[in-house]
Amino acid sequence: MKKLNLIFGAVLIAVSAFFFYYAGTFQRMPGQKDIGPGAFPRFVCGLLILSGILLILREIKQDNQETVSLFSLKFFMGLLSIFCYFLLLKGLGFILDSIWIVAVMMLMLLNEPFKKAWPLIAGVSVGVPTGLYMIFGVFLKVPIPNGLLSGIL
Fold it and tell me: Residue 130 pLDDT > 80, yes or no?
């Protein structure tokens, strides 16, 4: 586990540093003087870099010899699910596509048997994507793919 956390911390720092640099290239809009469009992404990247450093420092201080498998069936199923999510996003639309991916991820990550957890899985899988669509698609007018529900929404 120690080696895995050290690698993850280093990758987190490297990716965050790249995006920190990239956020500096965002173009300012005419009349924008104080805080530019890259301020918030740079703030988040700075926090992620700090988190990576703290993770590495914590792992160096601790004597943790727990073994962990980096590649497992759940890992590959998660990657496959995310890949399918992006492939199906335009056709199914945000809400329908998000419902199935949230359900799949919860099934993989919850330690409860399905008989006990299905009400939670169903509620969260339908509620969260619908709520996000209402906030971003309806109230904030962010263009979100509707897919199969385009006639309804």
Answer: yes
Q: 0.85 cut: is pTM over it?
A: no
| Angle (deg, nearest 10), helices 39-61 and 2-23 | 160
Q: What ranges do the domains of the chain cover?
A: 2-61, 73-149
Q: How many whole angstroms separate alpha carbon 146 and alpha carbon 151?
A: 9
User: Cα 117 from chain centroid?
Assistant: 22
Reply yes or no on whether the pLDDT at 151 is more than 70.
yes
CB hemisphere CA count around 112 (13 angstroms): 9
Distance CA 47, CA 114 (A): 36
Quick one: how far is CA 149 from the chain centroid? 24
Looking at the predicted structure, is the pLDDT value of residue 9 above 80? yes
Inter-CA distances, 18 with 11, 22, 41, 68, Å: 11, 6, 11, 28
Q: Which amino acid is at 126?
A: V
Q: In 10 A of CB 103, how many CB atoms?
A: 17
Tell me: the pLDDT tens digits for 66-93?
665 666 788 888 889 999 999 999 999 9
